[in-house]
Amino acid sequence: MTNKVLRCLGAWVLGCGFGSGFGSGFGSGFVSGFVSGAIVNAQWKEAAVGYSFSFPRDHASHPDYKIEWWYYTGNVAAADGRRFGYQVTFFRVGIDAAPANPSRWAIRDLFMTHLAVSDLRGRRYRYAEKLTRGGPGLAGAATDQYHVWNEDWTAALDDRGRHVLRALDPQAGIDLVLDPGKPPAINGVGGISQKGAQAGNASHYYSLTRMPTRGTVTVDGERVEVTGHSWMDHEFGTSFLEPEQRGWDWLSIQLSDGRDLMLYQLRRSDGTRGGSRDPRSSGTVVAADGRTTHLANTDFTLTPGRRTFRSANGAVYPVEWTLAIPSQQIALQVTTPLDNQELDLGRSTGVAYWEGAIDVTGRSGGQPVSGRGYLEMTGYKGSLGRVLSGR
Amino acid sequence: MRRLFARFIVRPLLQEKLRTATTVIGVALGIAVVVAIQLTNASSVRGFERALETVAGKTAIEVVSSGAGLDETLLPSLGWLREYGGMSPIIEGSAALVIGDVKTLSRRQLEAVKILGVDILRDQPFRDYQLLEMADDKPEGLSPPVAEGLSPPVAEGLSPPVGTPPPDSVTTQKFLEILTDERSIVITEKLARRRGFEVGGTIRLMIGDRVRDYIVGGVLKDEGPARVLDGNFMLMDIAAAQLAFDRIGRIDRLEILLPEAADLDGSIAAIAARLPPGLSAQRPGRRGEQVETMLTAFHTNLTALSWIALIVGLFLVYNTVTISVVARREEIGTLRALGLSRAKVLALFLGEAAALAVAGIALGLGLARLLADVAVGMTSATVSTLYIATVAAPPDMASGHVWLAVAIGLPLSLLAAAVPAIEASRVPPTAAMRGHDTLEMRTRLRPVMLVAPLVVLALAYGLALLPAIGRRPMFGYASSFAIVIGASLLVPAIMFGLAALSRSTLRRRLGVEGLLAHANLTAAIPRLSISVAALSVSLSMMVAIAVMIGSFRETVVYWVGQTLQADLFIGPGIRPSVGSSQTVSEEVIAAVGAHPEVVALDRFRNVDLVYEGNLAVLGAGTFDVVLSHGTLLFKSPADARARLRQAIGQDAVIISEAFANRYGKQDGETLTLETPHGPMDFTVAAVFYDYASDRGVVVMDHGTFRRHYGDLPSSGVAAYLKDGADLERVRGEMLARLDEGHRAFIYSNRTLRTEVLRVFDSTFAITYALELIAIVVAMLGVAGTLLTLVLERRRELSLLRLTGADRRQVQRMVIIEAALIGAVSQGIGLAVGFALSMVLIYVINVQSFGWTIQFHVPLAFLVQATIVVIIATSIAGIYPARRAAQLVLTHDE
Fold first, then answer.
1. CB-based contact B529:B495 (threshold 8 Å)
2. CB A26 within 8 Å of CB A388
3. In contact, A234 and A71? CB cutoff 8 Å
4. What are the helix and strand counts (H, E) for chain A?
5. Local confidence pLDDT in tens for the 391 residues of chain A
């Protein structure tokens, strides 16, 4: 069983980067390819309708669920106007909920952390990762308070309710304090974000969409004081994706009119280039006062433009998009200040995805708006579904 | 000059085949033994060090703790070590591969393997792990992105193009899949092939007393650590290894991988300065050095022994060259008369020695390889029984060994030949005119002859009183050497004395042949002395070692009788050795303790202790039991038992005599030991006798041990039974109580004593073997010398035959001569041997091992040996005797 889980790990990475938590797709590969899925279901809790969130409790870890991550991205700038983007994601992947071996090194969870900093003016993109087992406290996620760590990389809540992020590598680093900003926005319907056709293929998913941010970022050893805004996603569940779901495109946007958007579309492997859109695609609009509106698949369109980025590994990512949400009177053009923001972990965990800072311009509620955000594109290097189905 | 050498030296050498052959073989054996022992010594240390290096891989520094490994909960607080490089926690242990049925398990069915437990997520950069591609190993899971992306050839299992990084992703992933199961294990290609193991198959391992089945999860290519112990290497996940070795909560060491450009010494110093008390940083090679130091005394003794054979070989060179000079005195005179300079005469005979030496060295090097295989077989049992687990394969002979042989053999042969060669160069041209003559030799005992040997023997006494140089009893060896030299110099005097005393006895007992033999030998004393000295030296070493070992054995027997009081001893399947502690599990202790006839159980635990940079043993025992059962023999103080009672619960220890001698500690003094919490002071309550380890043993009461080193699983358990219990029956019942997963070795008191003595005897097997070689060499010398005498006495022998002596009488005479030589040599050997044994027991042994040995004469052995020697020398006389008997028929001079 462990083996199967691990085989899915790489695929899961692709998923987890996705704000809405497709990491869970991992689970579906498991179900489809493994007879004793029942054991897993006995071991891990599935995301179910009716979950009610409470904070700060729900910032902390939910070890009953197989997969969980804490995801932060942000657009920040130095006093002199130099722009930077950053991403740090702490993943927890449950491997064996109750290992028989009493050793602390027995793998209950694997902890993976991805860190990336984009120097948008200097056109540099630097990233690092850590993949660690819990062991005697080398990595972990607390359940009584919000504190996740992977060796010396940490994310935690301080005594004033601020999110404190620290992750430093020789090439890339962040040391940031984030105010919560708007109240948590619960994505999906009824406390769950449905990802697949089956009932259990879902996650519990909330976002902090506009977090005032202050601190430093480090690129190639240069440390720069910055301020700006961040976005946090926290998602947990047990089983999500389906074999024919190939990948996804996910966006988080903070608009100048105070509204924030989260949107994702799932792509299916069905012959068309890039794959056709899956009906489980959805999103959330967060008003300036924090009230949320759920967007169903039919409520928006997300269309790639002509401009692409071709990675050295062969993946081709569309780096401009057109977004329309007619019911909200939103029409936006999405571009990026830096084409190469691909996290290629092919040598270690065998995955690659594009995760980068974006600029948006267009109209909202009839008024011209601009905005910033982050775009995530997965499944452009091989088919995720194929990986997951184990064929 | 070259032609002269060919005719004057080479031709006679070729003609006198037997003498030449014995000399060459003698030198060859000497060289072979020396080189073989070098190879053997190297093999035990090198085997360990090579395994260490191979396992260490790219590890630059390791962080270790005193006691039994690091408390793993310290790890999060050691995060700063990442500033220096990668970190990898390691569990390393020995296990036994079980071949055949467990129920009837004997130690012969076990094959030692080394197991490394790693966190593969961290360890991958440290070592070269390459999983063997299986035929059906289609890339799946993660592989497709890799296959479509970076490097398709890699995914297809072909070697990556030059410059392309290895496919870490696939390997790490694969390893994780394979290893995270606690029953999964990765074996090596060599082992898989040798034993026919396949992926998915089951292998049975015995670790401590636990027998478990593991699933072969993968096979490592024959690279990197997979080469350790000739493929007897296995890889486990660290969690699985902790469970398997009963080391939950501890890791053996934390390894650190520095960047290539890093300053190693600087980093070690910086890390050491920041580590909490109780932890230290060292190079991985440090453990090898500690083992090397530990084996020093053992190796030095073997080396010293090996030199005896060489010295005896050199006696033969001396002998041969002397005979050569004596036999050709007239010819030398002629050459001198013809204008050959003294220097050239000297060169001729030195050339002869050199020729013999070169032939001996060449033959010796060939023999060395064979002897090394035998010697490794004999010593590796000892080394692994007493010291470390190692693989019994001698290293290949390197050019260094050839140079060693040449560097020892050639100069020493020349030195040995120098005396007769110088005498030859002094032969005056007039010698040619005087006709056939013998060398001007002393034919009578003169008091002056006693001066030199007595001075040397006095020197020997003085040397014996000097202390060791750093655990190497150099003065002790020098003293032995002086005794040997002194005794050799005394041999002519002794022989003259014996000749005067024995004439009438021989005549009475052995008739006319005896008288003739006596006369012949007496006349030849100056020449014979050399052979007799060589044989005496060999025999004296045999006697000395027999006395030493006999005394040691008696002492051990007494000690075992006193200290092995328990009725049954329960231990793990593999003997613990340095770096591989083996433990008895709680299940076994519970099963054994539950037997209705068990009255008391005494658990003990041993760990490796680094004291002053050397490896010693730290043990935990129950002082109460020691007191109530009297299981220790105390050396000091007089009221040791009272002190021991007071020591319970205190920071007090008792130390073995070897420890006390080696580190100069006495009872009442303070001993500072490294503990996991830093250095701590302990009072030495008493010193006890111990012959189980020359490393030195420190024992503390269980409570004290637990307080400082934690609660560790037991290394062994002693059980005391009700009076009158049938040991064998209880033992059988205990074994029957164990479940399938456990297999302890239970010894009854009697079998353990036998086992102890078996180990003891096997330890000294090599010693006897070396001795035997020296004696064989000396026998060759006797045969050669006798043959020379016979050839020189052609006319006399012919005359004897003409005057009515028959063949058998001549033969008998020569054999009596041979037996007399043997008897005289053995007599001298016994006397010198006792002197040497004193030095061995009271100087060398104490200085190298720190043991008190009670002097004991193995009378039966010595009587037997004496008879054997006389018979053997008589046998050595058979060939010369036959030649002597034939001479008359073939020569009509």
1. yes
2. yes
3. yes
4. 5, 26
5. 333 333 334 444 333 333 333 332 232 222 222 222 334 456 888 888 889 999 999 999 999 998 899 999 999 999 999 999 999 999 998 888 888 899 999 999 989 899 999 999 999 999 998 889 999 999 999 999 999 999 999 999 999 999 999 999 988 999 999 999 999 999 998 888 887 777 777 889 999 999 999 999 999 999 999 999 999 999 998 876 666 777 889 999 999 999 999 999 988 876 555 567 888 889 999 999 999 999 999 999 999 999 999 988 888 999 999 999 999 999 999 999 999 999 887 655 667 889 999 999 999 988 999 999 999 998 887 544 333 333 2
Q: Which amino acid is at B597?
A: E
- Of the candidates A2, A6, A346, the beta carbon closest to that of B150 is on A346
Contact: B141, A104; criterion CB under 8 Å? no
- Disruptive mutation site among B169, B199, B247, B250 for chain A (greatest number of A CBs within 10 Å): B169
Q: Is residue A272 less than 8 Å (CB to CB) from chain B?
A: no
Q: Tokens at residue B687, please?
A: 């010193």
Q: Which of B84, B91, B122, B146 would best serve as a mutation to test chain A binding (most A beta carbons within 10 A)? A: B146
Distance from CA of B688 to the nearest CA of A (A): 39
Partners of residue A390 in chain B, C-beta under 8 Å = 140-141
Model ipTM value: 0.85
Cβ distance of B169 and A8 shorter than 8 Å? no
Task: Write out the E strands in A26-171.
Answer: 67-77, 83-94, 109-119, 124-133, 139-141, 147-150, 153-157, 163-168
**Which chain A positions have a beta carbon within 8 Å of B243's beta carbon?**
101-103
Interface of B with A (CB under 8 A): 72-73, 75-76, 79, 82, 89, 119, 121-122, 140-146, 148-150, 165, 168-170, 172-173, 176-178, 180-182, 237-240, 242-243, 248-249
Is the CA virtual torsion B454, B456, B460, B462 positive or negative?
positive
- The structure's pTM equals 0.75
Residue type, A66: K
Question: Residues in chain B, how many?
Answer: 893
Pair B426, B76: CB distance under 8 Å: no
